[in-house]
User: Which sequence fits this backbone?
């Protein structure tokens, strides 16, 4: 874990490297580099360091929140990609991958309209059998 003096030294180096420090950062640099500070300047420097520490904490919290949001988005994207790959595999397995896209989509739209549970059960049994065959041949 980084000590307060380590953080202060690394933050000073960071601030010195900034091309466009804020006004309070410029004042902090001036006061930090000054050898003989008055009591008023010490008070100002302490207040500026507290503000800089708060800004640093806020920046780290924002970065952590962005990582969390991005991780959720990435997980959703990966799950969607996985689902699409599986569906594409089913199209290939049904040996209709060479069909015209319009025909294939029309057929799928027609399937979506079917509300016959017995027909769906037959389709499921047939599909499960084909998937089992593929598993046996691959395994």
Assistant:
């Amino acid at each position: 874990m980084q000590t307060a003096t380590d953080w202060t030294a690394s933050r000073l180096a960071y601030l010195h490297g900034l091309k466009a420090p804020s006004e309070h950062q410029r004042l902090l640099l001036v006061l930090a580099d000054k050898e003989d500070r008055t009591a008023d300047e010490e008070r100002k420097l302490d207040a500026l360091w507290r503000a800089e520490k708060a800004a640093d904490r806020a920046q780290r919290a924002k970065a952590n929140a962005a990582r969390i949001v991005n991780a959720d988005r990435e997980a959703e994207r990966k799950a969607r990609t996985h689902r699409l790959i599986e569906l594409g595999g089913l199209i290939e397995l049904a040996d209709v991958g060479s069909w015209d896209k319009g025909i294939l989509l029309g057929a799928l739209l027609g399937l979506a309209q079917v509300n016959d549970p017995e027909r769906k059960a037959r389709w499921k049994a047939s599909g499960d059998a084909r998937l089992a065959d593929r598993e046996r041949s691959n395994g």
The CA atoms of residues 115 and 121 lie 11 Å apart. The mean pLDDT is 92.
